[in-house]
Amino acid sequence: MRIGYTLMTEQAGPNDLVRFAAEAEHAGFDFEVMSDHYSPWLAEQGHSPYAWSVLGAVTQSTERAELMTFVTCPTMRYHPAVVAQKAATVQALSGGRFTLGLGAGENLNEHVVGRGWPPANVRHDMLAEAVQIIGGLFDGGYFDYEGKHFRVDSAKLWDLPEKRTPIGIAVSGSQSVKRFAPVADAMIAVEPKVELAQEWDATKLGPPSRKIAQLPVSWGPDREAAVKRAHEQFRWFAGGWKVNAELPGPSGFAGATQFVREDDVAGSIACGPDVEPIVEGVREFEKAGFTDVALIQIGGDQQDGFLDFAEKELLPALRE
């Protein structure tokens, strides 16, 4: 099982993210994923630099670790033809270490371009068209497309990397698995549901593919402070993705989670100095059939301590 580190754009600025990427590779993480947001979930997080500029710098500050977007929405803020160009460029800069993680997006990030926020079924239709366009451009040569939601007129990627960029797609249930497993190289999910992994492999009808998850933790020497930090910056997580996809901004998430207690957050996120609760969280994904888990350390000012802890204690424990 591969263990990854999350470069969370919502809680750190661009220069720090580039530094964290190099330190995470040095600590021994196998891969690094980056969120792609226009806004933080909560104002307390305080950041949201442009992920693709940061990724370009990260390709040069790292040498070994695989890189990935977790995830990019290729339908509203970005036209899928532009996403294909960005992904091909990052793949070339990284020497073939990049995976393009895609998802149907959240209102939080996509409403900023003033096109409204379509219902879930329309968002999935748009994502399906976007995947066709991106794949067509990855094939090389001139590409044309006319669908219900997108049109591409004689587009070509002039700098294709030597290694084709793999595509991972975020799913949450049977409907999205059946739709996207046949066209993706990897599955992305945030809950340890064994049925997701089993149906994904059955739908792909080939050798088992990567199944990549993400797990938030709030490491720190003082458990009480770690719980408080997790509540302050990560209580938005309690709403679940059906709610999280619909709210339009940090104030909406603050209002929706105003009654979430510190104990509620501590019950679902490993907090404090101990290794074992984090190992148990990762083990749940392993039991569910996932091949990769990217950890999120909550708190932009806590990364240096966490990375030192990961190198000396956490990663050795996980690999046992």
Automatic annotation (TrEMBL):
Class of this enzyme = oxidoreductase
Q: Name one GO molecular function term.
A: oxidoreductase activity
Q: Please list the residue ranges annotated as the Luciferase-like domain.
A: 1-291
EC number(s) given by UniProt: 1.-.-.-
Q: Which Pfam families match?
A: Bac_luciferase
Q: Which domain of life is it from?
A: Bacteria
Q: Which UniProt keywords apply?
A: Oxidoreductase
Name of the protein this chain belongs to = TIGR03557 family F420-dependent LLM class oxidoreductase
